Amino acid sequence: MKHVNFSYNCFSEKGEVSLPDKVFTASCLEDGFQPIVFLDSCVCLHIIKVVEHKRKAQGVNIQRILALKEYITKYPETRIDPFFAFLELCSQKESFDFEKFEDFRHRIDFFTQVPIKIFKSFNYDFYRDFFVFRRIPPMKGDPMEPVNQILKNSYCTLLKIRSLATKGLTKSNAEYNIDALADWMTNELNIFRGAEYKLGMNIFGGNTEFRKMIGLNKPKDVKKKLKGTAWDMFHSKFTANSFRISEILQKAIYPFFLTSDANLFKIFQNFSIEIVKDGGENFVTSFVMTSDFSYPHLDDTFIEKNNKKLFYLFVNRSNHQHLFNEEKVDRMISELEAENNIPF
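User: That's the sequence. What structure does it adopt?
Assistant: Structure tokens below.
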């Protein structure tokens, strides 16, 4: 399968890849799958800056944006989609910012439709010209509904990881913390969060570079950091996984995820085993992942014992149907925010 070289980092369910070419795209469409490239929030903001400020855009590699424009012009069958990035960018306050959503959407829509010759020459004025292009109908319903329970469960789990971490990250605490996290997810949260568990294993297992993902290095703005990591977890698990994203959107999709930061995906590299549980109509139930087992604080004996624990946990929960209890999760979040000294 041939792919197109690109300067941003691109991921699919096969790992790090390049964006698909026409042959691969045609094969997807023939099989009934729409290839879609989901953009992360940073890529979206880069596009928006260039659309508005052109050559004067600050903090942006303009050549990357021009390369992306060339790609979507050359391969129009592959769509780029900023939807989940917009949800992240527009949900940072207590209520969803529909005005910001519309503003961002107009700029990305302009980027996709403006002729490449005009865009590359910067011979346009967005504020003058954007009305010429196709207008997308207004959004209906609650845009956060498809992802609300996923993000709340993730944020709650990240709070628990941080709460355990603040009590001690020495080697002597590692096994206790990992067991405590698994037991808490099983018995309290009532859903096993595989990616967050993997992050916890890295943090408790002595891989210090992951501590920043839960705000241990900078106690200020911990809530913002944890919510950002919850979104990162969402992007890494769902927007590059055809099974999960197709379940969310109820469409047959072959997804790619385009990002300016590949560090998060280190968590999901070098899998030895991946077990995904469908759960019938409920796709967000338990799944278990194992890795290359490179944890300075953990020895082989514990790894073997822990793998058995996770396997039997998966078997015992194989018929478990997760029912999201929002009131309970909100209460747990409030309690864990207090434990982490996060102001209300």
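Strands lie at 3-4, 9-12, 15-17, 19-20, 34-39, 79-81, 253-259, 274-276, 287-289.
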